[in-house]
Here is the input.
Amino acid sequence: MNVHHLELFYYVAKHQGVSAAARHIPYGIQQPAISAQIIQLEDSVGTTLFHRRPFELTQAGKDLYTFIEPFFKGLPQIADKLRGGREVLVRIGAPEAIQQHYLPPLLRGMKKRYPSLEFTLASGRQDELERQLLDQQIDIAFTAIHSKPQAGIRHEEIVRLPMALLVTERSGLKNAEQLWRMDRIEVPLITVPTYDPFYLHFQQELQRRKIDWFPTLELNSLDLVHRYSAEGFGIGLVPVQKDRPLPKGTRLVPLTDFPTVPYTALWVGKATPILDALMEEARRVSAGLH
Here is the structure.
């Protein structure tokens, strides 16, 4: 018998059904995958383990559950004992900009709550982070999103940030309408990479308004967008963050009638207490951003 199949059966039997098991298994797996692997388990033991509608364990299912239940129920306790009481390692994914400006205060808050907490960081775009979550390479991701996360990924919006244009103080630009009225916008646009959801939301709104304005300078971080804008090389596209000082000699031109950009926590399966604490801390940190 496959041990993973037994683990899935443990959750199905404990929570009285496949759909309930999918909500409680502490990693991402879809109902069809659970059902298919339970069928493989039943084929390997040569009998039906439970009736589907209504749910009820067969006698064989009851016997198997009685045998495996102490092992799987005791795994969290033995894991904690082997770690010597240390907090579980949490694997976090986020784009570079969030790693640079958002995660440090979040992780400082977490370390105050859980002094022995250990963590790793991985980077990526929304689609890459979703793939890492589904492959169980990371436990949680924080990222701006442009499209609905794919099936199997849970999500919670943490904060929405408005867009603005970063210009030098000597710029004659008073409001964005001055740009939108131009037949052709010749001022260079400075942005983060064009795959970044922040840029995608901006470009989507431009297209809705039938305005063409594409990046001249596509830079790897918001710090660089700030730097090049302050040097007068063009107009920067940036989020409005009240806790982040502007470069000397610059000012913001708010895009008040543009959509705000959602920044979201992504995870799979049932959120553990550590993930719940991370999201609580993320909400606290994000309250200072807007």
